[in-house]
Amino acid sequence: MTVHPSLQTYIDAWTHSIEAISELVTPLVEGEWNRATSCPGWSVRDVVSHIIGVECEMLGDPRPIHTLPRDLYHVTDELSRYIEVPVDVRRCHTAPEMTSELEYTIIRRSRQLRNESRDPETMIRTALGGAQMTLEKALRLRAFDVWVHEQDLRRALDKPGNLDSPAALVTRDVLLDGLAKVVAKDAGAPPESAVVFDVHGPLEFMRTVRVDADGKGTVSGSPSLGPAATLTLDWETYFLLACGRARPETLADRIKTEGDQGLAQAILREFAITP
Length: 275
Fold this sequence. Notes:
Layout: H1 5-25, H2 44-58, H3 78-88, H4 95-114, E1 123-125, E2 132-134, H5 135-157, H6 166-177, H7 179-186, E3 193-200, E4 205-211, E5 217-220, E6 229-234, H8 235-242, E7 255-259, H9 261-269
Parallel strand pairs: 3-6
Antiparallel strand pairs: 1-2, 3-4, 4-5, 6-7
């Protein structure tokens, strides 16, 4: 039984990141599990619970039957309520219970992925009650989600790392997929203009968003000689903004903008592409 090469890339990235999470949290003492993260209302324990819950759903496990408290300020709609159930049900779990369940879930999910023989274009129903998507896209998004939560944990625990890991590369590409919409539609860059993003740090890349005469944006790796705006920032700042983990004003000293300042600020205000 052979896993398709395009799937293996995302499986390897997911494996690297979720094993890093296990290594991060295994030595934590009870109090450290309660540290706040940049996810509203969630502690370290809650982030790990979320990861366990999604992977169990991908395994086909039944969802827990649980009634949420009414005073969770960060639960504001049906999606957040759906996401919160497997998190809240584990809030009373001890550190050994958390690490044991995480380890067991990783073992089960890794076995499932090793035996994955379906075509990448196979349509599957995603976790979190989502619509159907291809198997390849689902695995890509799992690598992305797990890496972003790995970084949430690292910041909460003050243990930076893996900013250039395989899943970081997947995350870069997922975030770049949303960049054209941010510039052309959300920020309203004028037709026949270009905006350059110069990103440095552990992951270095330069991308240009070109807006055509109809206002449609496309992303390319070729530079622009006369961009309307240029934004220079480090990779960590880029993904913190794109994943909604920070507001531009809190990271202003890490962002350099040139050209049309109104457009640059509009782009930064609209930069977050995750819910």
